[in-house]
């Protein structure tokens, strides 16, 4: 893993892609509505824990979370934490009855900052360490739905609800390999952005991938500039683009057709600016194009538009070529990219076949080739989604003893933000938000 080295979770047996590695109900769930104005997420979680009727029990259960003592942290991290959190610790210490010592409040805040997921506080899942290119995904309660139910409305929702969070393998994992997830939301970030975001979230530095992790080395193209691009200008453009992508709410692009069209125009403008500087397989270009695909599909859902369908086919192919450099073929994001192209092909076949044949003569040059490709893309997407839940089938059972905790101490366990994959039972074209909000 990129972070860890002490305590972690390791596979005790081979684990296939799509298997549930671990499940756990949160010992404390805090909804977004419980966060008061001006509070950070981890402060709100710590406050709710201390104000809970189960305070004594909860404090006992989080005692094992890292750091168990402030002295467990390296001196520089401890000093930084004390400087950044001193006022918050004093406020938390005095906000509960009976009050607690500021040092105890600081320790609890750091436990929550380094371990709390958006879906709550966990004891076992907090042992799973971070990797920028992980072998597993975390689903929060209710995020992964299985099969189908004939029960209508609320009854159906209740039948599909799963109160436990789940960690699911996105590729085959070998016995002895560490189980990892990403703490950083979108995977498609530059190395500098990943390091800065992790430092802000967890106060410690990202380390290099451990030997044998997947992929040990990500293809150089994913961070490369175009030949002749001026490094300073490229770095500035990249920083501005990533800051903009982090600030924009991707869900707003799907609210209305007008919003989707406006978003797509802005994204196309951004692509035009950075495509002159970044390698076509750059991770951040891939992230930008995933946003473009989302806006394009939102538009096509409202009305046929040959130009938008052609764009969706193009960006879907670009996304998949980049994904091949850093994602396993069994990742849910791969299914999404296949669906992007399938939706674009179906739309252009229906609206303007001649345009499709002209735009992609070597791939979709006639009706037979295009329809075969569309069917194959849909099969590819269905096969990947089928790893995570069978069509109409029951929930997969955890692999049981396939994951085991090993080691004694953890450098930086837990997470404040997780990528949310698409629900297995969602219709073709539906998708979850690309990023969770980052709480700091």
Highlighted features:
440 residues, mainly alpha, Serine Threonine Protein Phosphatase 5, Tetratricopeptide repeat, two-stranded antiparallel ribbon, 13 helices, elongated, disordered N terminus, SET domain-containing protein, SET_dom_sf
Describe the structure.
This protein has helices at 41-51, 55-61, 75-94, 102-115, 153-160, 191-202, 231-247, 257-274, 283-300, 306-323, 332-351, 353-359, 367-388, and strands spanning 8-11, 20-24, 129-130, 136-139, 165-169, 180-181, 403-406. It has 440 residues and is mostly helical. It is 44% helix and 6% strand. The chain has three domains: 1-25 and 131-149 and 159-217, SET domain (Beta-clip-like), CATH 2.170.270; 27-121, no CATH class; 224-388, Alpha Horseshoe (Serine Threonine Protein Phosphatase 5, Tetratricopeptide repeat). The model is unreliable at 1-5, 146-161, 390-398 and 404-440 (pLDDT under 50). The strands form three sheets. It has a three-stranded antiparallel beta sheet, with no helix packed on it. Helix 3 packs across helix 4 (102-115) and helix 9 crosses helix 11. InterPro entries: H3K4_H4K5_MeTrfase, SET_dom, SET_dom_sf. It comes from Alexandrium monilatum. This is SET domain-containing protein. Residues 1-184 form the SET domain.
């Amino acid at each position: 893993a990129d972070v860890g080295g002490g305590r972690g979770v390791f596979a005790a047996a081979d684990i296939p892609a799509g298997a549930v590695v671990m499940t756990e109900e949160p010992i404390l769930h805090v909804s977004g509505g419980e966060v008061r104005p001006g509070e950070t997420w981890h402060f709100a979680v710590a406050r709710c824990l201390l104000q809970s009727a189960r305070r004594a029990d909860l404090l006992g259960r989080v005692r094992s979370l890292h750091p168990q003592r402030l002295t467990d942290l390296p001196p520089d991290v401890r000093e930084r934490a004390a400087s950044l959190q001193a006022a918050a610790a004093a406020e938390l210490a005095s906000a509960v009855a009976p009050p607690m010592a500021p040092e105890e409040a600081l320790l609890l805040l750091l436990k929550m900052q380094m371990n709390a997921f958006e879906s709550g506080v966990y004891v076992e899942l907090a042992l799973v360490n971070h990797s920028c290119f992980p072998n597993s995904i975390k689903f929060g309660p209710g995020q992964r739905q299985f099969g189908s139910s004939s029960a209508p409305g609320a009854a159906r929702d209740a039948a599909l609800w799963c109160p436990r969070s789940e960690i699911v393998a996105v590729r085959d994992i070998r016995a002895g390999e560490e189980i990892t997830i990403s703490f950083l939301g979108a995977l498609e970030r530059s190395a500098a952005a990943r390091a800065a975001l992790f430092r802000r979230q967890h106060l410690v530095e990202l380390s290099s991938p451990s030997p044998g992790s997947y992929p040990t080395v990500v293809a150089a193209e994913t961070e490369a500039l175009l030949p002749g691009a001026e490094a300073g200008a490229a770095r500035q453009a990249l920083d501005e683009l990533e800051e903009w992508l982090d600030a924009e709410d991707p869900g707003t692009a799907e609210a209305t057709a007008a919003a989707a069209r406006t978003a797509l125009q802005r994204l196309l403008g951004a692509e035009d600016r950075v495509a002159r500087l970044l390698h076509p397989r750059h991770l951040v270009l891939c992230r930008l194009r995933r946003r473009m695909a989302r806006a394009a599909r939102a538009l096509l859902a409202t009305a046929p538009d040959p130009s938008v369908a052609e764009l969706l086919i193009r960006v879907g192919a670009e996304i998949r070529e980049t994904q091949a450099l850093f994602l396993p073929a069994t990742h849910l994001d791969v299914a999404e990219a296949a669906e992007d192209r399938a939706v674009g092909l179906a739309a252009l076949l229906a609206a303007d076949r001649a345009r499709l044949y002209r735009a992609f003569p070597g791939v979709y040059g006639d009706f037979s080739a295009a329809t075969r490709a569309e069917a194959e893309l849909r099969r590819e997407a269905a096969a990947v989604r089928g790893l995570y839940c069978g069509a109409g089938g029951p929930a997969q059972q955890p692999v049981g003893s396939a994951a085991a905790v090993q080691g004694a101490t953890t450098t930086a366990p837990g997470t404040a933000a997780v990528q949310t994959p698409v629900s297995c039972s969602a219709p073709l074209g539906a998708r979850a938000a690309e990023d969770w909000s980052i709480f700091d």
